[in-house]
Amino acid sequence: MATLRDLSKHLGISVTQVSRALNGHDDVSEATKQRVMDAARELGYSANISARMLKSGRSGIVAMVVDVAVERDVPDVLMAGVFGLSTSFARRDMQLILHAMPEGSDPVETHAKLARSGLIDGFIIVNPEVPEDPRIAFLDRENVPFVVHGRDRIAPDYPYVDIDNHMVGYMLTQYLLGLGHRRIAVLEGVEGAAFSTARLSGHVAALAEAGFAPSAELVRQAQMTEVIGRQSMHELLSLRDPPTAVIAGNTMLAAGIYAAIAEHGFQVGRDISVVAHDDRLPRLPAEDFTPALTVTESAIFASVEPLVELLIGRIAAQQPATAARILPVSFVERDSAQRR
Fold first, then answer.
1. What gap in Å lies between CA 79 and CA 202, rounded to an integer?
2. For 21-75, how does the pLDDT look when each residue is reduced to its tens digit (9 = 90+)?
3. Which of 54, 168, 206, 256 has its CA 20 to 30 A from that of 178?
4. 228, exposed or middle or buried, with CB in 10 Å at 0-12, 13-18, 19+?
5. 255 closest CA partner among 216, 217, 283
6. What domains can be seen in the chain, in order of their start residue?
7. What H or E segment, with its residue span, contains residue 33?
8. Which pTM was predicted?
């Protein structure tokens, strides 16, 4: 098995530089990092965890704990994130462990056990809850490195990567109001999820700015799946005064909404306008909907590198505890919404 010294000799650079390249340090150029990664694969180099811990006190292993009850219905989102994160950590000679937490487990205790094992250098937290996620509070209190995909409050004092979800809800609502719609339904994630709470606050803000009050009967919060989208849209179309437009939290919900509208004999765009937020999931491209779906857009893959960089920085104590990245959101107008 190849060693760091073998890589050093093969590349003609120092062992220290090879080690720092493998661990993703900022003082090593991207070109050198890539050369070292390529050579490691070519020579079959694999870091020994015991040796690494003896030398640096770190294992090179990070963990992401997911709740089976939450994630099993939305595998597209989970796998898109895990694939990207695993690949990015692997390029830095690190490993991502996906820990599936059984239903009924205590998330804080699960994180505590993993942290106290001494084998985990840091954690990626997903699906934070508002107003304060207990996992975040625990890891912060115990001084365990972590980064959050999303946030559980407006201005966190921990490292996180997010989009402006309030603005997502505001933009989509404002767009539909501009087309003359007043009965606007919203299908979002489960109640208590930080991102869905923020999007609903943006929706309410846009309505208030235009002089309208929100309607509780037009809001549905549940798992963001095609089945839920279809069921919820059937319910909305059965109201005495159904919506003329719908905002979907993702393209899976939008697919179910499209199906229900067709089953009622209506046409998307002509009879009922539909817009959505698009995470750019490979299975459901918004542009492939018929008609093509108008969206706010921020690819889930765009969060991968910032999450990895922030966590590695925290592990190495090179990033401030309050480091954050707010990723851009674009608006793409297509054919799924028309003037009322």
1. 28
2. 876 677 888 888 889 888 887 887 766 544 554 455 577 899 999 987 766 666 6
3. 256
4. buried
5. 283
6. 4-46 (1.10.260.40), 61-160+301-327 (3.40.50.2300), 165-300 (3.40.50.2300)
7. helix 30-43
8. 0.80
